[in-house]
Structure formats: structure tokens, C-alpha cells
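Margin note: ligand = phosphoenolpyruvate.
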Amino acid sequence: MNKKLTGIPVSEGIAAGPVHIFRPYILHYEEKRIEQVQTEEELHRFRDAEKKACTELDGLIGRVKLNAPDKVAIFEAQKMLLTDEEVIAEIEEAIAGDRKCAEWAANSVYAEFAELLAASADPLIQERAADMNDVARRLLRCLAGAEDVTLATMDSPAVVVAEDLLPSDTVVMDRRNVLGLITEKGGTTSHTAILARSFSLPAVCGAAGAMDALASAQTVVLDAVNGAILADPEKDVLAEYREKRERLLRRQELEREYLYRTVTMKDGEHVDVELNIGSAKNSELKLASCADGVGLFRTEFLYMNSAELPNEETQFQAYKKILQAFAGKPVVIRTLDVGGDKVLPSLPLPKEENPFLGCRALRLCLQKPELFQTQLRALLRASVYGELWIMFPMVGSLDDIRAAKKAVALAGETLRKQGAAFDPHIRLGAMVEIPALALIAGRVAREVDFVSVGTNDLCQYLMAADRMNAAVTPYYQSFHPAMLSILQQVADAFRAAGKPFCICGEMGGEPAFVLALLGMGFRRLSMSPSRVAAVKRLIASVDRAEAETIAEKALELETADEVEAYLRAELSRLCGAE
Ligand code: PEP
Ligand code: MG
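Resulting structure:
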């Protein structure tokens, strides 16, 4: 009997092999006060642990030099943090002066420094906070006398299964021995996902229950195309997946050739291929040259990772950096989209019965003018560094659009009074996520400069199926004929108005669906970087008339399964089978 687990496929690929369960040491300690007479002993304990942590880091640096030489700097920086005299002096003072036990002293001092770093205006310094936490964990483990469980010691090829993976876990792993990754936590933008894509390792995240359901050495098939995990597969299933894997590798090889090409449809019509980006990290910005711009820059990362709301300057620096990286190409920056599933440590919000139907995204920003104005001022100031388009999420009516535009005008007025420069012709647009907005697309087109369809939310609202709830996945039908017909309405209205209309939800990076989108008239698609090559390949394989016929036919079909099967068959016909 095949046991089947599911998760989110975050890095495309197929792998089969034995499981390697990765269960790192879990920190736990008590915050104890010590007696005066114990201080010397406690100081010794701390110094011994610090020495052990140093030795470990030296060993780690040696291994990283072999496995990932470009990451050595991270651990050298961690060693500097560990041996920093100021930090050591503070910990010793917390032990000797405040009589804290070594664990408590070390943890509180490191936490304080990490908080300071996280609050810095410089994103590079902010990232050091994660290193500080990594160092603290190492030190606390050494204080407990526990050994380091690492992925560096895997001595034969296996599929790694973990609750979650930290940068320090993945960087030491010997990639030759890692066939794929399965984590219980995380999603498309988690660290594991980003790393897996950069190493081209098949990975599935959000596979709830995987740690209990699987055991080390058990054989598993990891299908990171469909998000399926099969334990103890029968021989014929295994053979089927091996074949599928071969086909996939051949397709990926073909697609890679397209990544850096500027493609047109077969009849020469240009299609803008843009990127969805979730941070201002250099690893994301380095892809600027393979895209026509940024179709969706999610600004939430600025707010999610720190205990305080980011100030205007911090935001300005991040927006400026991305505009400069994409010099001259349009960069669509979305205003804060929190609420729903995204909670902010720095902004406690009242609990709602139905958060996805509640006060999220633009609704929240309009209720909190100071929060919104800070972001808008930062965006306007950054506008002089590139071609900025500002986009509002969760828009349901013209009232919302008008209120958002008024807020932008107010931010502009404030800056004018301060004498700060900004581009007065920034394009303002709305996301089409609430079906109501699509149904009045003609009126919306008179009110905004552009729209971009967020198919992830549009689908959940159109189908009344929570995108986070695995129990209703069968009802969340992105290929539903109603999705096609509502998208056609948006395309028709905006084409008639001569204004840009884009897709920035996941379906914009799904080649089979893109085939229908091209036929409906969409010529701007924004997607996660890992989808670019496949979508470009499709664009280059079809001409306008053919795509139009395919879209027309798809619009006549009756069920989501029929639409999907038809579009996939057409995709295979045009681009060759998987
Ligand atoms: C969407 O809803 O399609 C979208 C792009 O936004 P997010 O996934 O961030 O909600
Ligand atoms: Mg959305």
C-alpha cells in the first residue's frame, strides 16, 4: 500500500531514494539566578562553551569551503560575532553582575544585539540578526553539552525530511548526497524553497505530518511537480516515476536555454515577462537581466521580520535598491498586504472570525493612515530612482481606489512641503483579487493606470475556497471556467481602454494556463523566477491566432478538469511532452 502525503511543490523536480530524517537539537533551558559563590564556575562554563562553539565553527568553515565556498563569509562573520569582545564582556557582566546563569546571560545579550541589528536601516545589517540568533543557539547547545546534529554528516544519497531548515543547516549539507528536501513548515518563499531552487533540488514544503509518517531509510518518491510524497512505492510506481523524472530533466534542459532570452510569440508579438519578488536581497535582484521588470514586489518582508514597524528611511532604502537594480524597467511595488494569514509581530490586530474576508491589505492601510502614509512617502521618495508603479491589494470598489489615490496625493503634499523630490507621474494601479472589481473592470479602467490580477486570491474569493485550507483544495479550482471568463472580462475592458493589464498570481507562471491568457490578450505576465524559463519557452512556441483559438475553446468547456486537461494537452502539442 502506498502512503501518500502532500505539500507545496516549491522547487520543481522528482527524486526517489531513502529517507534521512533530520531532527536537530531542541533548545531548552531554565532562566536561573546563581549564588555569588557560583559566579567563577559559571564564567568558566561560559568560556568553555564559547571555546567549543569556536572549534565547531572552525570545522564548519572548513566543510563549507568544500561544499559552498561562496557561503564561507557567513560563518566567518558568525565567528566574529561569537568572539566579539563587547558581546563577551556583556555576557560576563550579566553572569557576574546580574547573577544570571550562563544560558540566560548569553541568550539575553544575544537577543538584545539581534534586536539592535534587526532595527537597522541597512538591510545587510538587518540580515546579521539571523546570524546572531544562529550563534546564540550554537552557544546554548554547547552549554548543554549536546552534540551538533548536522546535514554535513550524511554519507549516502537520501531525501532529507525535516520540520524546517535553517540557513546553517542547509549550507553545510553535502549536496551530492541530498536527493531532495521535504519540510513540514514553510512555503514558496521559505528559506528552504529559495535554497532548493538555487541548487535545483526537488523540494516540497508544508508537508504536514511528514516527520511522523516517514522513517529514516524508508524508500520515498518525492514528486515536487505535483507536491506528492509516496512512501514505500511499489516497483511499478517507482519505475513510472523514474521515467517521469527523465522526461522532466529533458524538459528542464530545454527550458534553461530560454531563461536569458528576450522572447516573442511566433508571429513576433512581444510579451512582457516580469518577476514576482519578495525581498530586496541580492539573490533575488540578480535576475533583473532575464526579465522585463518586476510585476509584483511584495513589501511584507519589511514588516514581517522585525519587532518594530519599519520606518520611512528603512523602506525608502529597500525600494530605492530594487528600482536601481531594475534600472529603467517598470517595477510594480505593492503596498502593504497583511491581515488574513499574514500577521505582523509589530502590529497586533484584533482576532477576526473570517480574516480573509476581514480587515486586510488596503482596508487595513486605510484604517491606519499613519502606517499607510509612511509607506507611501517612502515609495514616492524612491520613485526618482527608476520607473515605479504603485499597486494596491484587496481592492473591491471605486471607493477603495479613490481613497487610495487620495492617500497618495496626501503623501505627495507632505513631501512637497518638506522639499523632497519625487516623480509626479507614478502609475497607480489596483490588484484584481475581489471578483466584484473584475465585474466592473470597464469603470475601473477609467479610474486607474493599470491592473494586475492576483489569481491566488481571486480564485479563493471566486470559488469560496480558503487557499490555506488543505481540506478544500479540491474546491480551489484555478482552471475553473469561471476563472477564465472573469479574466476575459478584465482583458477586454483594459484592452478597450488602452491601459496595461497584467497577471501576477501563481497562474501567470503556469504554462498551460498562460496559453489561455495569451489567447485572451494578456501581454504582461509576472511570475516567480523559477517559472520564467518554462513560460518563455511556451511564448516562443505559439502564435497569436493559435492562442486565441485555444482560449476560445477553453472558454466553452464545462469543468475545471476539462479545461486543465485540454490546456495541458495543447501545451504538450506545442512544446513537446514533459
Ligand atoms: C494573489 O493573490 O494572487 C497575489 C499575487 O497576492 P498574494 O499571493 O501575495 O496574496
Ligand atoms: Mg493576494
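The chain has a mean pLDDT of 90.
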